[in-house]
Amino acid sequence: MTTTDTEEPTLTIDELAARAGVTVRTVRFYGTRGLLPPPVLGPRRVGHYGREHVARLALIEELQHQGMTLAAIERYLNRLPADLSPHDLALHRAVVASWAPQTVERVTREELGRRAGRPLTDEEVARLTAMDVVVRDADDPAGDTYRVDAGLLRLGVELLDVPFSPDTVLAARTALLEHSRAAARDLSRLLRDAVAERDAPDVRSLSAHMHPLVVQALLTTFQRSLREELREWLDGGGED
Question: How would you classify residue 196: left for phi > 0, otherwise alpha for psi between -120 and 50, otherwise beta?
Answer without folding.
Answer: alpha
